[in-house]
Design goal:
The protein has about 400 residues and is α+β, with helices and mostly antiparallel strands. It has one domain: FAD/NAD(P)-binding domain. Strands 1, 2, 8, 9, 10, 11, 17 and 18 form an eight-stranded mixed beta sheet that branches. Strands 6-5-13-14-15-12-16-19 form an eight-stranded mixed beta sheet. A hairpin with a 2-residue loop joins β17 and β18. α1 packs parallel to α3 and α7 runs antiparallel to α8. The longest helix is centred in the C-terminal third of the chain and has 29 residues. The protein is globular and about 60 Å long. The two termini are about 30 Å apart. It comes from Sphingorhabdus lutea. Belongs to the UbiH/COQ6 family. Its cofactor is FAD. Pathway: Cofactor biosynthesis; ubiquinone biosynthesis. This is Ubiquinone biosynthesis protein UbiH.
Length: about 400
């Protein structure tokens, strides 16, 4: 008979970011226990003050947050996105997505710090979740019976399943031999936030330039009543250093030019950060007693703002599988669960990732002919209701085989 230690739980989650903590809370809200291990200090990630980093949460992800009890803690903290406006370099032939009044918002914009803070408060209060943060992993192993981790303080953790939410550079994924297709885009994303003269009216703008997409995402006004938006600006990697060396005034002036004066005069609300853009997708997202979620399994261009939401679909699907399995008396790490998760998520993640990659490449082609073709395509979508409804469903995260949690229902 296999001995079970007092440190045994249903799952061990490596990674205490937004995906890892949501995974833990999602399982705990249905009675399953979890260890969460991360080498980062959670308090350092939640320091007071706005650092410019934001996340667009789709309406389906918000429905899941409501179902697991997080939604009420975020009430009033996010800015609804009521319309998405898409254009090819601010030229004629723009496309706008405006949902019916009965359908509500398309998504909400949150400061990352607030999302982390509210998630951390929830998981810290749960009797089913044990946080090991900050802690380094000294060793780990998986066999036919369990997954085992040894931490730098001597703790030995065991679980039926190891869930990997480490992010794009996941060592656990690589050590498990889970191969991925990946490439660099030779582009840099510059991310930050601005205060602006005109109200954004809850509109998200996606402006495509040959050098890369330029997104303006609505945020709540600050405590002074100033209008705010988040910026995600993709530029060629050879041009990024020059932009990042600009002073606040020069940078603001350049942003105003890129925006075509849509929101009037602007000032920087936080320093801009930058990171290289890349694509990766794992063919296999499971191994013996191991499952990948979020960026550990897939990463894409931010052109459609679906990266985190795609990871939340992983969370919702894996939660559904594990909860249903537990009610049948199966362990979390049972091979049947992993096979179901692999089949369910691998097709969806690949299709969304590839579609995003193709979209980025199409809009990166320069020249008048390419621009005219793109604008014709945008106008066709604008006039074709079924096509427009399809893309709106994608923006909401409501396409494909939708897990129960993403419908706002408990399992």
């Amino acid at each position: 008979m296999t001995q079970i230690s007092s440190n045994h739980k249903d799952v061990i989650i490596i990674g205490g970011g937004l995906i890892g903590l949501t995974m833990a809370q999602s399982l705990a809200s249905h009675g399953l226990s979890a260890h969460v291990v991360d080498r980062a200090d959670p308090h350092a990630m939640m320091v007071k003050g706005f650092d410019g980093r934001t996340t667009a949460i789709s309406s389906s992800t918000m429905a899941m947050f409501d179902a697991i009890g997080l939604g009420e803690k975020l009430d009033g903290k996010g800015c609804p996105i009521n319309q998405i406006w898409v254009s090819d370099g601010l030229k004629k032939g723009a496309l706008d997505f405006i949902p019916e009044a009965k359908d509500g918002f398309l998504g909400k914009m949150f400061e990352n710090r607030i999302l982390r803070q509210k998630l951390y408060e929830m998981v810290s209060a749960s009797d089913l979740i044990t946080l090991h943060m900050p802690r380094n992993i000294i060793s780990q192993s998986r066999d036919d019976h369990r997954a085992t981790l040894t931490l730098d303080n001597g703790d030995i953790l065991t679980a039926s399943l190891l869930i990997v939410a480490e992010g794009r550079q996941s060592k656990t994924r690589d050590d498990a031999g889970l191969k991925r297709a990946h490439w660099q885009y030779n582009h840099i994303a510059m991310v930050g936030a601005i205060c602006h003269e005109k109200p954004h009216q809850n509109i998200a703008y996606e402006i495509f330039y040959p050098a890369g997409p330029f997104a303006i995402l609505p945020m709540l006004d600050n405590e002074k009543g100033q209008h705010r938006s988040a910026i995600v600006w993709s530029v060629d990697e050879k041009d990024a250093p020059a932009y990042l060396k600009m002073g606040p005034r020069g940078y603001a002036a350049e942003l105003e030019t890129q925006m075509g004066g849509i929101l009037g005069k602007i000032d920087l609300a936080a320093d801009f950060a930058s990171y290289p853009l890349s694509f990766h997708n794992c063919i296999d997202i499971t191994a013996n007693r191991l499952a990948l979620v979020g960026d550990s399994a897939h990463g894409m261009h931010p052109i459609a703002g679906q990266g985190l939401n795609l990871g939340m679909r992983d969370v919702a699907a894996l939660t559904e599988i594990l909860v249903e399995a537990s009610r049948l008396g199966l362990e979390a790490g049972d091979a049947q669960n992993l096979a179901r998760y692999q089949k369910w998520r691998s097709i969806d993640t690949l299709s969304v990732s590839v579609a995003t990659d193709i979209l980025n490449r199409l809009f990166s082609v320069s020249g008048k002919t390419a621009s005219a073709i793109r604008r014709f395509g945008l106008s066709m979508v604008q006039r074709t209701k079924p096509l427009k409804s399809f893309f709106m469903s994608e923006a909401r995260g409501e396409s494909g085989a939708l897990p129960i949690l993403l419908r706002g229902e408990r399992i």
